[in-house]
Prior knowledge:
Layout: H1 3-12, H2 15-22, H3 26-31, H4 37-47, H5 51-54, H6 56-59
Amino acid sequence: MIKIVERAAEKAGGVVSLARVLGIKHTALYSWNRVPAERVLDIERITGISRHELRPDVFGKAPEAAQ
């Protein structure tokens, strides 16, 4: 499992908890090479981890880091 997903799972109360809230099987989280773009906003809402940190290739650098 990639580090950012591990961190998100910790904040959500575990892998099973995160998967349950996302409506997916927990084993799917282990297959991600990066967070799917369609899951980013949900994970941000659930965990508080910024979309910019989850997928900087899609959302760019965080506004405070861009300066």
